[in-house]
From TrEMBL, chain A:
One of its GO terms (cellular component) is GPI-anchor transamidase complex. This is GPI transamidase component PIG-T. The keyword Transport does not apply. Residues 1-23 form the signal peptide. Keywords: Membrane, Signal, Transmembrane, Transmembrane helix. GO terms for biological process: attachment of GPI anchor to protein. It comes from Cryptotermes secundus. It comes from the Eukaryota. The chain crosses the membrane at residues 519-541.
UniProtKB/TrEMBL annotation, chain B:
Residues 407-434 are annotated as: Disordered. It comes from Cryptotermes secundus. This is GPI-anchor transamidase component GPAA1. Keywords: Disulfide bond, Endoplasmic reticulum, Glycoprotein, Membrane, Transmembrane, Transmembrane helix. GO terms for cellular component: GPI-anchor transamidase complex. The gene is Gpaa1_2. Its main location: endoplasmic reticulum.
Length: 575, 649
């Protein structure tokens, strides 16, 4: 009986589904793209982007019926009133100095920032709940995100998508990083499940854990934002970008030469495009082919696109997987004509280093060095993200450019509070042309409560990356997508007034004064306590002598005493 | 109650016994302490080394290093290149080699402004390359450093170590397991280069500001966890000596030292400590003597407070570091080649790479009587405690005697009544036991210590003054110090003639001096045990004896002994003996001259070390030890105690 009822019920449900689909046709598109870029340092940069565009209003009810859009994510986003969501899970450090700029910059560890809708009431609570939900979705320790490690920076982060009202109110923004987070397969698997084709078909089949985690840098990204449906921008669409950035070191892959191929990088060839995808493209940056070591692509690219962006010309070989007639496994190989030669590195316009200064466990400092290689001054916004257990002093903030101290254009500082909120410092600066600017801050080392030390306490404590935001006037080394574009294709020939870069610096490890946490340590603690307790009596015994006390008291005291007793007697009588 | 303040409290039997036979007790304690320490070298009294840190996993994986042929090529190329730069560093060649391996390569410039000369400037250049770890985000780093020595250097060359470093860099570059950046560092000007590099890396100045300008550096690799300094003198190595003693007697974590020894034995490389291998005598005495010699070699090296290799400068920054010095194979037998050395270093770096936490387990305070035995701080402190307790017991006994005296020596007091009248302010206000003045004691202590501080801050002035009159820096400083210390010998003239000072005052001064010495020794032992031990052995027995006597002969003898123990005199003597031992064939006169020159230089080096590296042996010797010596000197010249006077009569 139950079984029959169940079948009928589910049949009805199905009918309802179909009818709803027919009534309101889901207008959504899925594009998968892969950009391969040999870097001048001999590394190969692979950037996957899976874009889902859904012509629907950004509301909680919209996510009840999903087609290509991952429903698991949609429910979370709808429930917590999210306007925009950015997640990155990264292992390794992007070396701007030698690699240029990535499409998406990400801080080592886990990084999460979100804009909430203006109707959201208790943002701190919603933020914590959102982080908790995402932690379950992606198997990341986002459950450790709360007010004590979250910021709402005023200038650094702007909404990446469209906003309904004109003014931007940063109180609806939350930003947090977990620099200690280790990114592994357990994050990749749930991340892959959000894709329409999972890892069954299409470019996502190339993402094999064994090969991804052998790279020098890998970063998973998830970016959700509302975009304009058309050029008039009268209606909204939802855009979800899932990205993977990988940097391969061909020396470590260990074949003795510079040649690379899809099979060598990912351990597997491509069996075809995802059937749900509207576009399935592979782009290979062949600009270096002309200036650096020469390589030959096999099979020969069906099309070559020349892109000029911000005065910088680059060339891309394009393979349209959908148009290819793939029989078996498809592979693209780059064969170099000469052996490896490392040329002189030309660093990008703006890059940064960060390090701890000083020694011992009393006082220290953090220095961030900003290199501006441009012939003009550059305006940057510098966001410092210091955990509460590193008390830093604003008066020690020193900004020195080429040996001369400079004044910041803007300064925002909210001192941290132990166990409640981190130190927030945001500085807007004008970096002089061709300069090295040092931003230094000093701090004290403090003791924590003994339960606050993490496991492996002597490993040290992490300080998250600083974020440096700038609008570059030139497009050299720039690979980012324009704000109005959704796919990698949109970045070709996309000259704009400025190119937004957000650099993340190194994360830092500092050694806090750490108790020993061993058996001898406990013994020492105990002994010290005993000694401290014994000291008082011993000191008394050795320095004081017992004497009979004089019974006769001071006249003044006696007078007071008699007064007191008399007054109390009076009171008693009165009562 | 009131053990110390109540005159009646010390009349117990035990106290009486202690006071009566304190001299014998002190001597027993002194000898007992020394014997205890000597016994520690025997294997029954020390412990075998072991690994405390589990994560090191020493030698767990098979070595894969196979670039020894490349190392040989590098070596021959570098020999050719070095010949072209007789007193410089062939940095273009080194930079090119590191760049070919696609490492982040940087140079680092530094300047030394001579602190004692006339604004002389010396410049140097370090080269370093960073292998960026593929598995982490540059939060931690390891260092492999080699001091580069040009052919003109007086020290044995290190070209083979540069060659093996490059070969290792090539090998490491291909590996995917690195989770800590590896920094390959080639330094110039011995310890100066490393110091400047470390200061620049941490952007601080350790010594006096303006002396060593550390300069700026471009690339960094996170917090440095450990460093290996490599000094190979030949391609064919006989044995590898592991050096550990650092600046101010600081030592690396014992786990790191063990790791080196373990990996050397694993790869079949002969390894030594203090150039001595482990012994295997049947005779228990010979066995002990062998260990004791190694132990004393370590104690004497550590006591100088001067690092015996470039590793010693890392310790201050919380970086564990050792030096591996490889000596050329002499005689028969198969030598150790690049292959084995490479495997040892590969194993070392893989183990260090495994570390999850900084070195924090195992011991930081220890003495080594063999490569695989150690004496921990818990074992070696009691002997020093015994030695120092002799001083404290002596002080206690003196105090007690002084408390008892007023009853016994009343007639003597009457004789001094005149003096008491002259200084009525310290008359018997405080009761019968405190009828002496603390003012002369305080004055003397203050004066001597102020003079010590003055001495400490005078070298720069002396140096520049001397240069004006055309003397070399070392002569002017030595002569200056000699004159100053000689004039200080006349302090007792003023101090003892000081009005109002009673016999008890000088006893108090004696007690203060004894207690100060004991405190100084115990405090020093916390940082540099060896220095404390040697000074304790030298100073404790004479200082116990430095009580003024009536006997002329004895008094003169005391003064002579104490003069010999004057820090400056001691320095001269030690350097003389060292010179005599180093050049046994020279005639006496030449030896004296050589010794004198060496002494002058030793003094200047001590000063410069304190300015550049913040070595504290010189400050402690001038600002604390010398004043303390002077206190005893004043005590010696004071009038003897009444009781002693009577007994001698």
């Amino acid at each position: 009986m139950m079984v029959v009822l169940h079948t009928i019920f589910s049949g009805l449900l199905c009918l309802q589904c179909i009818s709803s689909v027919i009534c309101t046709p889901q207008k959504d598109y899925f594009d998968e793209e892969l950009l391969l870029k040999p870097l001048p340092s001999g590394h190969v940069y692979a950037y996957f982007q899976f874009t889902t565009l859904w012509d629907v209003d950004f509301e909680a009810t919209s996510f009840q019926h999903c087609h290509l859009f991952p429903r698991a994510l949609g429910e979370i986003v709808g429930r917590y009133n999210v306007q925009e969501l950015h997640i990155s899970l990264t292992e390794g450090l992007w070396r701007h100095e030698t690699w240029g700029y990535p499409v998406h910059d990400a801080a080592p560890g886990a990084e999460l920032w979100a804009w909430f809708k203006e109707s959201t009431k208790n943002i701190d609570k919603t933020w914590k709940e959102l982080a908790g939900a995402l932690s379950g979705l992606l198997c990341v320790s986002f459950n450790f995100v709360d007010a004590s490690n979250s910021l709402n920076p005023e200038f650094t982060f702007r909404p990446a998508g469209i906003v309904s009202s004109g003014a931007v109110n940063s109180s609806y923004l939350r930003y947090s990083t977990l620099p200690r987070e280790i990114v592994c397969t357990e994050n990749l698997t749930p991340w892959k499940k959000l894709l329409p084709c999972d890892a069954k078909k299409g470019l996502s089949t190339l993402l094999n854990a064994g090969h991804i985690h052998n790279t020098n840098y890998h970063s998973l990204g998830l970016h959700l934002r509302p975009v304009c449906r058309d050029t008039t921008c009268s209606q909204m669409s939802v855009e979800l970008r899932q990205t993977v950035s990988l940097v391969y070191d061909m020396v470590i892959l260990g074949t003795g030469n510079q040649d690379w191929s899809i099979k060598k990088l990912f351990g597997i060839g491509l069996s075809g495009a995802c059937p749900l995808a509207t576009m399935s493209n592979i782009y290979i940056d062949i600009a270096l082919n002309e200036t650096g070591a020469h390589f030959q692509l096999t099979p020969t690219p069906p099309a070559v696109i020349t892109s000029t962006r911000g005065g910088h010309k680059s060339k891309f070989a394009v393979y349209d997987i959908k148009a290819l007639d793939i029989d078996g496994m498809f592979n693209i190989a780059a064969v170099y004509s000469s052996s490896r030669v490392y040329g002189v590195n030309i660093p990008p316009v703006l890059f940064a280093n960060r390090y701890i200064i000083g020694y011992g466990q009393e006082r220290g400092g953090i220095v961030t060095k900003l290199h501006n290689g441009h012939w003009q001054a550059l305006d940057v916004v510098y966001l410092e993200n210091i955990p509460w257990f590193i008390p830093l002093y604003l008066h020690t903030l020193k900004i020195v450019a080429n040996g001369k101290e400079i004044k910041p254009l803007l300064k925002r500082f909210i001192p941290g509070k132990a166990r409640a909120r981190p130190y927030y410092l945001e500085v807007a600066l004008r970096l002089p042309a061709r300069s090295i600017t040092e931003i230094s801050l000093e701090f004290d080392y403090v003791f924590l409560k003994w339960q606050e030390y993490p496991p492996d306490a002597n490993h040290g404590f992490y300080i998250g990356a600083a974020v440096i935001t700038s609008l570059l006037p030139v497009g050299r080394n720039y690979t980012g997508l324009p704000q109005d574009g959704s796919t990698i294709t949109s970045s070709f020939n996309a000259s704009r007034d400025g190119y937004l870069v957000q650099l993340r610096t190194e994360t830092l490890i500092i050694t806090m004064p750490t108790p020993d946490f061993s058996m001898p340590y406990n013994v020492i603690c105990l002994t010290c306590t005993v000694i401290a307790l014994a000291f008082g009596p011993l000191h008394n015994i050795t320095t004081k002598r017992l004497r009979l006390k004089n019974k006769e008291q001071n006249y003044v005291i006696r007078w007071f005493k008699s007064k007191l007793t008399r007054s109390s007697e009076m009171k008693e009588k009165q009562s | 109650m009131g053990l110390l303040t109540d005159p009646g409290a010390g009349s117990g039997k035990f106290t009486q016994l202690l006071v009566a036979s304190h001299n014998k007790l002190c001597v027993v304690l002194y000898i007992g302490g020394i014997i205890w320490f000597m016994i520690l070298a025997h294997e029954h009294f020390n412990a075998g080394t072991y690994f405390s840190e589990n994560a090191l996993l020493p030698g767990l994986v098979k070595g894969e290093f196979d670039e020894d042929a490349v190392a040989k090529v590098y070596q021959s190329e570098l020999f050719d290149e070095a010949a072209r730069y007789p007193d410089g560093i062939p940095f273009s060649w080194l930079l090119a080699k590191f760049r070919q391996l696609n490492l982040d390569t940087y140079t680092h410039n530094f300047t030394l402004n001579s602190p004692l000369g006339l604004g002389m400037k010396y410049t140097g250049k370090n080269i370093y390359a960073i292998l960026r770890a593929p598995r982490s985000s540059s939060t931690e780093a390891l260092v492999l450093s080699v001091p580069y020595r040009p052919p003109s250097s007086v020290h044995p060359g290190t070209v083979p170590s540069v060659a093996i470093m490059l070969a290792l860099a090539k090998f490491f570059r291909r590996q995917k397991y690195w989770s800590k950046d590896v920094i390959f560092l080639v330094t110039e000007h011995e310890q100066l280069g490393v110091q400047a590099w470390l200061e620049a890396y941490h952007k601080t100045t350790c010594g006096r500001s303006g002396v060593l300008e550390h300069g700026d550096m471009m690339g960094r690799g996170g917090a440095i966890q450990a460093a290996i300094n490599l000094e190979l003198h030949a391609e064919k190595i006989g044995y590898i000596d592991v050096k550990i003693e650092g600046l101010n007697g600081q030592l690396p974590n014992l786990d790191l030292v063990n790791l080196v020894h373990r990996l050397c034995s694993k790869e079949g490389v002969r390894h030594t400590f203090k150039n001595r291998e482990n012994s295997n005598y049947r005779d228990i005495y010979k066995e002990w003597l062998h260990s004791f010699k190694i132990l004393m070699a370590m104690v004497t090296t550590q006591a100088t407070g001067v690092p015996n290799g470039n590793h010693g400068l890392f310790h201050r920054f919380g970086i564990e570091a050792v030096t591996l010095e490889g000596f050329e194979k002499k005689g028969r037998g198969s030598p150790t080649l690049y292959f084995q050395i490479g495997r040892v270093l590969e194993g070392l770096f893989r183990s260090l790479n495994n570390l999850l936490e900084r070195f924090h387990q195992s011991y930081f305070f220890y003495l080594l009587p063999a490569t695989d035995r150690f004496i921990s701080i818990g074992m070696y402190m009691p002997p020093l405690g015994l030695l120092c307790s002799a001083l404290i017991i002596k002080a206690f006994a003196l105090w007690h005697k002084m408390q008892e005296d007023p009853n016994k020596a009343e007639p003597a007091e009457e004789e001094e009544a005149e003096e008491i009248k002259r200084a009525p302010s310290h008359s018997e206000k405080k009761g019968s036991s405190n009828h002496f003045s603390l003012v002369p004691v305080g004055m003397t202590v203050l004066l001597t210590h102020a003079l010590g501080i003055a001495l400490l801050s005078s070298p720069q002035m002396l140096g520049s003054q001397g240069l004006e009159y055309g003397f070399s820096t070392d002569t002017s400083i030595y002569v200056g110090y000699l004159v100053m210390t000689l004039s200080m010998l006349f302090i007792p003239l003023f101090a003892c003639r000081n009005g109002g000072a009673k016999v008890e005052s000088w006893t108090i001064l004696n007690i203060v001096a004894l207690l100060e010495l004991a405190t100084l020794l115990l405090c020093t032992s916390m940082q540099n045990f060896s220095l404390a031990l040697l000074s304790a052995v030298l100073y404790i027995l004479p200082s116990l004896w430095m009580v003024p006597t009536q006997s002329r002969v004895l008094g003169t003898l005391q003064k002579v002994v104490w003069l010999l123990l004057h820090p400056l005199c001691l320095l001269t003597l030690i350097v003389m003996i060292y010179t005599a031992l180093s050049f046994p064939d020279e005639p006496i006169l030449e030896l004296l001259e050589k010794g004198l020159i060496a002494t002058r230089q030793a003094l200047v080096y001590a000063v410069v070390d304190s300015y550049v590296y913040a070595n504290w042996v010189f400050p402690v010797a001038t600002a604390i030890l010398l004043p303390n010596w002077l206190l005893f000197w004043v005590v010696l010249h004071s009038r003897p105690h009444q009781e002693d006077l009577k007994t001698e009569k």
